[in-house]
Amino acid sequence: MRDYSSTGGLGAAIRQGVLVLSGYGLRVSVERGHLVCSDGYCDVRRRLRLHRATSGLRRLVLLGTSGIITLEAVRWLHGIGAGLVQLTGRGEVLLASGPPGLDDARLRRAQATAPTRDVGLRITRDLLRAKLLGQARVLDRLAAPAVAATLRRACGELDRAPTLERMRSIEAESGLAYWEAWRAVPVRFARRDERVVPDHWTVAGTRSSPLTGQPRRAVSPAHAILNYLYAVLESEARIATQAVGLDPGMGILHADQPARDSFALDLMEPVRPSVDAFALDLLRERVFSRDDFVEDEHGVCALVGPLRRDLAQTGPLWAKEIGPWAERAAALLAESARRRERPIRVPTPLTQANRSAGRSGIRRRPPRTAMRPRVDIPRACLACGAIIEGAQTRARYCAACLPDVKRAISEKTLDLARLAKALKGPVSEETRTRLGRATAAASRERRRWEEAHPDLPDPAEFRTRIAPLLATVPVRQLARLVGLSIPYIAAIKRGERTPHPRHWERIEETVRALLGRGGEDAMPRE
Prior knowledge:
By secondary structure, the chain is α/β, with parallel strands linked by helices. Helices cover 46% and strands 10% of the residues. It has helices at residues 10-13, 71-80, 105-113, 118-141, 145-160, 164-180, 221-243, 262-268, 272-285, 305-312, 315-338, 402-424, 429-452, 459-465, 475-482, 486-493, 504-517; strands spanning 2-4, 14-15, 18-22, 26-31, 34-41, 44-50, 59-63, 67-69, 83-87, 93-97, 293-295, 301-303. The strands form three sheets. It has a five-stranded mixed beta sheet with strand order 1-6-5-4-8, covered by helices on one side. A five-stranded mixed beta sheet has the order 2-3-7-9-10, with helices on both faces. Strands 11-12 form a two-stranded antiparallel ribbon. A hairpin with a 2-residue loop joins β2 (14-15) and β3. α4 (118-141) packs parallel to α9 (272-285) and α15 crosses α16 (486-493).
């Protein structure tokens, strides 16, 4: 059993203030004033001791349904202001609680009546406008400009929408177009797993699951990742809602339903594009292993292993983005209630924008949500999909696969060299004649130019006047425009060769034209 103390080894356990416990037989208790956490599988167990003052804990995330947590441990978490979250592998939030916030019945009463008043329209319009603009920016990265333009036009329709029903309709129509652009996003797997994963796992596919007709119970890894990230976001939305004194269940955009935190779903809307951007980066940069996912008897795809733990630790990213929206909604609701009753003082515990927590009124509009939040997700080996630990953050293969990969590359290089030698063969007489004529023509041109220019310029003039201009010009483009070979231009650009002076004027004119006119499109075709 590995035992990490509060002064050593916690860097590997707590990341960005989040401690994730997974496995079976989870146990969270208090011993002599320390929070003691235990998790793991079978005989591979981990035990952590945390002290109140030095732990830096902000979220305790439980990824499992087997174990215990004592009442004294709940009080310990409450004392340091840490939240408690429990998630399932399918992206379901079983528990999300944080430090209590403002407890004012008038604020909750204003929230309950908001769907029938102007303040509900205002809050919904702000949330959906931010969501559509964020989705449009994601579509720009997916090379779908037409759909992005449609979503930006939908923002104008939101401003003119007179009812919540019309806003919901605009958002639903935009969502169909948005997720259609995601269908072809590829999902890469390690080479050893490419032939064993189902075909529908290799692309994102439709957002609606064929099992339910809804996003829940995803059957592809891409949407399983999205659902899991949304679950982490939902847990942060619940905690943020409670922190500002609102009720997570009384929705404005989302209609009330049993056992659903509709208002938490409302607050998630403007942050969803940031989650989508994060997932898109993950799908493009990460090579997955077959062991990162599991498929149940119904075909539902769920996350397992280190991937689930890594995604569960992204909570601080979404908490930072959702905080301003929760506080703004609370401020707008408090402002709407102030006309009839005495002012409601709304603190700002999430952003600390109002440290005195004594002034009421409407705060400024939250900043635009960031499009590419980053988190330290470990790399995976391209060959086997195993996580690459330690300092090899830029490595592409793990230590076990690297020797085999190097051996395969060497053998392939030798095979290609033998093949090239076999295909080369003797040079034909026709080829010799053609090469000889080209060489003779180049020599005649050089002699004529030198006869017309008896005073040859100093090669240093080219290196100081023309060579610096070549830094930003592509080799292939310059070679095509000046009529020289690509290896010759590449050697000139690297400073290994100086071209004959007869080429200087042509090279300089071409480079200056490219730099002055904006690139290749500005140059005439030869």
